[in-house]
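CO-FOLDING WORKSHEET

Operator: S.A.
Ligand of interest: magnesium ion
Run index: 264
Mode: holo prediction, single chain
Checklist:
[x] sequence pasted
[x] SMILES validated
[ ] output reviewed
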Amino acid sequence: MTEAVIQAQDVSKIFPTRKGILSALEIFSLDVHKGEVVCIVGASGCGKSTFLNIVAGFIPPTRGRVLLEGKEIQGVEPRCGMIFQNYALFPWMTVLENVAFGPRLKGVSTKRRHEQAHRWIAMVGLEGFENAYPGELSGGMQQRVALSRVLANEPDVLLCDEPFAALDAMTRQIMQQELLHIVHKSQKTVLFITHSIDEALILSDRLVVMSARPGRVKAIYKNDLPRPRILDMQLTDRFIELKREVWELVQEEVIGSMTAPRLG
Ligand SMILES: Nc1ncnc2c1ncn2[C@@H]1O[C@H](COP(=O)(O)OP(=O)(O)OP(=O)(O)O)[C@@H](O)[C@H]1O
Ligand SMILES: [Mg+2]
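OUTPUT RECEIVED:
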């Protein structure tokens, strides 16, 4: 096994709130290896986004640490690219300008960054839409732009916080296959949060089930389903068996979270 790209070691996060302290994550540990796709599923509010925000360096952990290629993450980490649920595009910029934005900040020349942007836009199948504004695109197309904008920064690690949750089922499946294609071609390491167990089983090499808040690792599955994970595979006995097993674990935690005290 290659060395872990991400090593989360006993990460805890406590938020001060008006009603007292809220423990969002508790002694959460996870290794993610190079080229691996790890999906995290868990009840709403169990700390998934909190964990991803810590890995991205947006917020610090209260205790514990996260290492990226052996070094502790201290601030916003340019080697990690985050894809959010709500696209997070600049509405006043065209598709091309959105995708070229990161390289522009890095001082890449206009000619070069536009060339690169064209390549990423083509890779997500949006050739011809370079001069469109996000408001003129469908949700699926906007999420493709968001994906190519993150890829244009050439991150080693893709952090995905339910990026396909707002998409219709068909577009979602297409985006999943596209992401897998890009990831395998470019050997990216991916940490992907989703509410959908189907999505986690389609995408992941390993699947992490989180406990109810405060979030801990409840179980880790090695996903041995064959690839490509196309529709037929989703009808196999093994897929259905795994789905049921993960669903039962998540459900236990959802029920637990509804009866747990709100703070503390
Ligand atoms: N900045 C903050 N200040 C106070 N509490 C916060 C803050 N961010 C998150 N929390 C709390 O931490 C807990 C975990 O939130 P988080 O957003 O990580 O959940 P999640 O697992 O991503 O949920 P969902 O699936 O609904 O997106 C929640 O109870 C939330 O209210
Ligand atoms: Mg979240």
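REVIEW:
Residues 47 and 238 are 29 Å apart (CA to CA).
Strands lie at 4-17, 20-33, 37-41, 63-68, 71-72, 80-83, 157-161, 189-193, 206-210, 217-222.
[x] output reviewed
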